[in-house]
């Protein structure tokens, strides 16, 4: 019944429950089987109908024995008996409702309500009075707030708790105080393959908790573990712990030595196995362990005295079978040699016993199913069983255990590191068991000695948006407002100072019936009990506005309403309907917010995307903090589930964790967030057209066709301006409009311009024009196929190849190809990531010349522009500037040298863009033979038909390079600043640069060979010298 929207299911106990007949069940099921009462299930659907289903009293294996279904006010109503198993032998009746063992329409049995068909018997309509009563009854039930039934057994009746947890930074393996070594807070994650599920789950969990990590595939050589005296990793995490145990002796010794020296631990997960082991020895462990595999277990609770627990709290019992992938089978552990030492019991569930350096976190679960072991384990001293089950057992200081046949077994263990100084935490199953996700964070904190610990303070803010919005019949009544106030008081007991944050659209005030309008009035009477924020007056999405004045007028109507009704206006926070205009950014919204409300913070779930949620972040744009803390709850009067959910979740969190829940007003909360995550202040602009949700909330006046299809990324002084000029000669290619500050270069991705936003960037590109045709494809998937041809797109040509026919003016109806040239992009560390986020399919063009010549050219360029530093220092003095030199001198040295580290800079680009989207041009060939280079560039851009540059470019002897042909006797060349003849480089500087770039040029050669790119002549010469 996919067309039915299920709103509510309510059960009733009816009189005279039916006694179930005896069936052939196993002893366990028979012992727990009891007759169930009749159950009346009411389904409310849209379109508005009420479905009544009377289930039979006997349920077996989650299947109702009979259904009685009546559709009220609809076409069909009928009674059926779905199965004869619930009736006496030979037919009989099922709850007294039928005499046949099959439904009257002859359909097969089903555990769900029968769907009406054309063969359904005639309708059985209930009287109108009963129908009205049922509708009223259901609506009343929907307005009844469900009570939070969950009660944590380790919390007091008032919900108070004692937060007792271990500071892992104070724990040292083997005891004693050790000097904390310098080490990066980073996880080294070993996975079985790059596609393994548990490995991906572990990586996602680390990302969700903002932990840095490096992934390595097990079985390969170990990565570099240290940088000099500093360690690179704070904990080692194995998706498959047996991969650690099976390391060859050399790598195992290196890893263990690193862990012991830097006092860090190892965390691992035991994999599921096809074969079953009983009492098998887990070899290569400092603390000798035996294991059983393929064990099913159930019911667990935590040992509050464990030294591993920090985030996780010993709260309640986890009832039922404990899950694992793929078949809910676990690995359990027990010691090979046991030394038992009892300690006093501390609390209801705690047993603390130390055994041969093995300590566990979870105390014995209460039940176990699966294969029983044939041998007894333990020392047989007959310690008292604190679970009350009796029997002789050997109790350990347990991490997680299972109780079976009078003995305890472990399903996760912790090695305290007393044998070799390395703490190890081993999980008997993966992350499908939800408690393991919390325990893993504690295990990482424990093994890293607190270097990788999540904060125990959590901030919460709950917005109730659209407080006056809703169709008549769905709006808040007085009883709904009273329920909100009651729920708020309950939450204040759990989170001190908590207040709901109400968002209002004033246009819809008093738009309901009399009861609903009274609810609006009651909200305003209690306005001082809530926090408030302004929504859009008419609830229109701001990205639909193209006029700032109109947008501000609508916001002022909301502000005037607030002043008139005593709602505060200085909250500094606002939310846009459906987050429209926040991200992707609509600058008019930000302008209006600042001028009308003085907004300092807003919320969105769309940055960078709605899903996956673990990647959502905040950013700051035009002085407004955009955060992700908003939790949205519907205000509709017929839905009390939100109030119930929040109280239940908070109680559950307080039961199972040591988290402290805190609330703050939005502005303070945003300031706290960016203080915790200062690296998130600068945004990363994504392409709105790559996300269907973003396209819906992006202005129709904007288009992704205004974004460039390729970038000329530099570096400087390699011929990028000449290439720019040649490209603008092409009839199907257009560049950005010039910038008043940086001329032909926008320099968007690498400086303060990036913070101005995407709207600012789009203004530099002309609106789409209809041009003569060129079939241009910018997808690298298409580009890669063309590179397989005989003439490789990156191949070096010493002469003009045989060219196909050229066309100066192509046929009609095509889009112009847009590009941007900014030579400073090449060596900037931030640009590749930013460019890929906005233009993931863009092609990249770079030009390389001898790095030594490039460095000298840049120095002479700065002298020609009267740079004081370049004028006051020789080139050699610039090159040899040291740490103690003036900053301006060091800055000039960096601009001379850093762009010439070609391999390093290209690798950064290739970490975001595939090689098929990168074209490397030889700057000397561009100078000497631009026609061949432009032919190859058109091939790379897949422009058809080709434009004939041989008739548009001519060598100019006075300039010493090619210029644009204007007429038979006239050329148009670049300005006086281009083609200057600089004095030659001095010998000392030349030798210094040869030495400095030697390793960088070697790395470039290797990179070009890897890319199947020919080696340019200047690189061969530099390598020989």
Automatic annotation (TrEMBL):
Family matches, as InterPro entries: Heparan_SO4_deacetylase_dom, HSNSD_N, NST/OST, P-loop_NTPase, Sulfotransferase_dom
Keyword ATP-binding recorded: no
Residues annotated to bind 3'-phosphoadenylyl sulfate: 857, 962, 978-982
All residue ranges annotated as the Heparan sulfate-N-deacetylase N-terminal domain in the record: 183-341, 413-446
Active site: residue positions: 717
SS bond partners: 963-973
GO CC, alphabetical: Golgi membrane
Keyword Hydrolase attributed: yes
Record Gene3D superfamilies: P-loop containing nucleotide triphosphate hydrolases
EC number: 2.8.2.8
This protein's name: [heparan sulfate]-glucosamine N-sulfotransferase
Protein's organism: Folsomia candida
Taxonomic lineage of the native organism: Eukaryota, Metazoa, Ecdysozoa, Arthropoda, Hexapoda
């Amino acid at each position: 019944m996919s067309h039915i929207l299920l709103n509510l299911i309510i059960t009733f106990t009816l009189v005279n429950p039916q006694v179930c007949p005896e069936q052939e069940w196993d002893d366990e099921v028979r012992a727990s089987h009891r007759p169930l009462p009749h159950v009346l299930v009411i389904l409310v659907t849209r379109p508005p109908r009420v479905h009544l289903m009377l289930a039979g009293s006997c349920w077996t294996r989650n299947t109702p024995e009979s259904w009685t279904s009546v559709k009220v006010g609809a076409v069909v109503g009928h009674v059926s008996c779905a199965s004869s198993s619930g009736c006496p032998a030979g037919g009989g009746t099922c709850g007294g409702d039928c005499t046949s063992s099959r439904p009257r329409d002859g359909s097969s049995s089903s555990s769900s309500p029968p769907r009406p068909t054309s063969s359904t018997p005639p309708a059985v309509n209930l009287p109108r009075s009963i129908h009205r009563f049922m509708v009223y009854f259901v609506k009343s039930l929907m307005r009844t707030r469900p009570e939070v039934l969950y009660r944590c057994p380790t919390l007091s009746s008032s919900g108070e708790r004692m937060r007792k947890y271990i500071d892992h930074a104070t724990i040292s393996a083997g005891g004693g105080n050790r000097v904390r070594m310098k080490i990066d807070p980073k996880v080294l994650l070993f996975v079985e393959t790059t596609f393994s599920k548990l490995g991906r789950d572990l990586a996602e969990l680390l990302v969700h908790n903002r932990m840095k990590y490096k992934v390595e595939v097990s079985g390969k050589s170990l990565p570099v573990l240290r940088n000099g005296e500093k360690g690179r990793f704070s904990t080692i995490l194995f998706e498959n712990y047996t991969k650690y145990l099976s390391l060859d002796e050399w790598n195992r010794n290196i890893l263990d030595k690193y862990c012991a020296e830097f006092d860090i631990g190892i965390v691992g997960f035991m994999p599921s196995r096809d074969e079953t082991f009983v009492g098998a020895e887990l070899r290569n462990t400092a603390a000798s362990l035996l294991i059983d595999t393929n064990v099913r277990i159930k019911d667990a609770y935590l040992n509050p005295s464990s030294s591993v627990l920090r985030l996780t709290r010993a709260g309640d019992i986890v009832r039922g079978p404990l899950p694992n992938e793929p078949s809910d089978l676990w690995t359990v552990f027990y010691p090979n040699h046991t030394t038992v030492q009892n300690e006093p019991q501390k609390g209801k569930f705690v047993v603390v016993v130390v055994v041969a350096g093995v300590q566990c976190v979870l105390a014995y679960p209460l039940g176990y199913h699966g294969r029983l072991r044939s041998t007894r384990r333990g020392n047989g001293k007959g310690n008292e069983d604190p679970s009350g089950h009796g029997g002789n057992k050997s109790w350990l200081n347990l991490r997680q255990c299972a109780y079976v046949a009078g003995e305890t077994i472990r399903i996760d263990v912790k090695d305290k590191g007393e044998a070799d100084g390395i703490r190890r935490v081993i999980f008997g199953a993966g992350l499908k068991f939800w408690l393991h996700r919390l325990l893993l964070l504690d295990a990482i904190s424990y093994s890293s000695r607190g270097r990788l610990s999540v904060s125990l303070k959590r901030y919460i803010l709950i917005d109730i948006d659209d407080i006056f919005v809703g169709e008549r019949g769905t709006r808040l009544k007085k009883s709904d407002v009273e329920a909100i106030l009651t729920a708020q008081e309950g939450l204040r007991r759990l989170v001190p100072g908590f207040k709901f944050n109400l968002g209002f659209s004033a246009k819809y005030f008093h738009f309901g019936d009399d009861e609903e309008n009274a609810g609006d009035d009651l909200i305003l009477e209690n306005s001082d009990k809530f926090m408030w924020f302004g929504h859009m007056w008419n609830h229109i999405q701001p990205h639909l506005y193209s006029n700032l004045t109109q947008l501000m007028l609508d916001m002022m109507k909301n502000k005037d309403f607030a002043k008139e009704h005593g709602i505060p206006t200085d909250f500094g926070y606002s939310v846009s309907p459906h987050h429209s205009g926040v991200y992707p950014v609509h600058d008019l919204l930000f302008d209006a917010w600042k001028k009308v409300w003085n907004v300092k913070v807003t919320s969105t779930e769309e940055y960078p995307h709605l899903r996956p949620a673990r990647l959502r972040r905040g950013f700051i744009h035009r002085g407004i903090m955009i955060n992700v803390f908003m939790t949205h709850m519907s205000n509709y009067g017929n839905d009390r589930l939100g109030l119930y959910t929040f109280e239940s979740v908070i109680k559950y969190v307080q039961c199972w964790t040591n988290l402290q829940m805190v609330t703050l007003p939005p502005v303070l909360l945003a300031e706290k967030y960016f203080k915790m995550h200062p690296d998130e202040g600068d945004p990363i602009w994504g392409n709105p057209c790559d996300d269907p949700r973003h396209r819906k909330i992006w202005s129709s006046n904007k288009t992704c066709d205004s974004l460039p299809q390729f970038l000329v990324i530099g570096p400087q002084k390699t011929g990028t301006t000449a290439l720019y000029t040649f490209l603008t000669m092409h009839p199907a290619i257009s560049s950005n409009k010039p910038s008043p500050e940086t001329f032909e270069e926008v320099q968007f991705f690498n400086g303060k311009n990036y913070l101005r936003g995407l709207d600012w960037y789009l203004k530099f590109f002309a609106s789409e024009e209809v041009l003569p045709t060129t079939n241009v494809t910018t997808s690298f998937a298409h580009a890669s196929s063309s590179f397989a041809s005989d003439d490789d797109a990156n191949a070096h040509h010493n002469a003009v190849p045989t060219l196909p026919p050229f066309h100066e003016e192509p046929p009609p109806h095509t889009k112009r190809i847009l590009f941007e040239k900014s030579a400073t992009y090449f060596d900037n560390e931030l640009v590749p990531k930013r460019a890929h986020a906005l233009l993931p399919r863009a092609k990249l063009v770079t030009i390389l010349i001898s790095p030594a010549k490039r460095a000298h050219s840049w120095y002479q360029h700065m002298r020609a522009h009267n740079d004081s530093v370049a004028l006051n220092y020789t080139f050699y003095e610039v090159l040899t500037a040291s740490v103690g030199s003036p900053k301006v001198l060091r800055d000039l040295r960096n601009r001379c040298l850093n762009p010439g580290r070609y391999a390093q800079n290209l690798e950064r680009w290739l970490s975001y863009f595939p090689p098929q989207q990168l074209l490397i041009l030889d700057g000397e060939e561009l100078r000497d033979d631009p026609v061949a280079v432009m032919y190859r560039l058109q091939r790379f851009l897949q422009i058809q038909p080709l434009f004939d540059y041989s008739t548009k470019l001519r060598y100019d002897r006075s300039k010493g390079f090619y210029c644009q042909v204007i007429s038979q006797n006239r050329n148009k060349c670049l300005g006086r600043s281009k083609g200057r003849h600089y004095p030659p480089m001095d010998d000392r500087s030349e030798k210094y640069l040869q030495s400095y770039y030697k390793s960088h040029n070697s790395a470039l050669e290797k990179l070009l060979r890897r890319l199947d790119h020919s080696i340019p002549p200047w690189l061969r010469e530099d390598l020989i010298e």
